[in-house]
TrEMBL record:
Keywords: Cell membrane, Membrane, Transmembrane, Transmembrane helix, Transport. It is found in: Cell membrane. One of its GO terms (molecular function) is dipeptide transmembrane transporter activity. Residues 319-339 are annotated as: Disordered. It is a multi-pass membrane protein. Belongs to the binding-protein-dependent transport system permease family. It comes from Mycetocola tolaasinivorans. Residues 101-301 form the ABC transmembrane type-1 domain. The chain crosses the membrane at residues 43-64, 105-129, 136-160, 172-192, 223-244, 280-304. One of its GO terms (cellular component) is plasma membrane. InterPro entries: BP-dependent_transpt_permease (IPR050366), MetI-like (IPR000515), MetI-like_sf (IPR035906). This is ABC transporter permease. Coiled coil: none annotated.
Amino acid sequence: MADNTSPEVPVRTGPTPTSTLAAIRIAKTDRTRRPLPRISGKLLTGIIIVVVISLFGILAPFFVQDPRFSGNDALLPPGDGHILGTTKLGYDVFAQLAWGTRGSLFVGVVAGGLALLLAILFGVLAGYFGGVLDEVLTLITNIMLVIPGLPLVMVIAAYVQHTEGLGAFARSSLLVAIVLGITGWAGSAVVLRATAKSLRMRDYVAAARVAGEKPLRVIFVEILPNLVPLLAAQLIFGVIFAILGEAGLSYLGLGPTGSITLGTMLNDAQTGQAVGSQAWWWFVPPGALIALLGTGLSLINFAIDEVVNPKLRLAPQAARNQRKARRAGRSVSENGAIA
């Protein structure tokens, strides 16, 4: 009589790679103990930096003198009466820094929000509907991607600012924010399109469509809530791009001359020969504040990336386990297995 028993499948009895053990352990902890990821050091640091700078830009202008008051002595170093000294025209640098921070934050928020709306329009709609609409929106997105960003912003800003009939709006912070917003959405649209295209195939989205839900309701109820971490990351990226872009435009003389921003402060310092006059207190504070604000927003963005991509959150723990294994005298292969 023939033996119908199936051959035994060899079972691996060797040690499990430390990276796999770390991933399983952290995943179980995330499911059972905390539904949301633990606040990391980079997230806390980024939030503190951004909150402090934001409060400074919102509240400090109420407690400083007029940033356009030129009755002070010129090029005074930091000291009594002027915390950060004065400019070549007698403007108080601390007062200009307070108002410039508010102006840069305004440009960043408006431009970042506008870029995010355009990215949702061109990315999410293209990824969900597909077909001809996807091809048309993707073509427009690709065209915006291949056009160099800074030259495009410079051309649009220079053209709009010399257009008759706009008045004070032609050199305002709002106009610069709009220009930066309509030129900085393409990269985010590509990311959102790919994610929306993946979510469109999920079971809950298919169930909503079978139930007769309208497409826009499916997008707002089923798609966008699952894109919140990604949308937040893209918004922060847009704010960073806008603040740095405004600083670059202002340094080149294409910024909002009708208002004060950190970029216009740098432009005034450059035209006023602050470096040649050794007036470091004129250009160092706005430059340092731009760098700090960009650092804080980047740290928050990195922390959000860890939420969107769990592998980034598990990788540090796996690396620590491997280092512990090496210190214990056990060799660890590239894939994390202990020999």
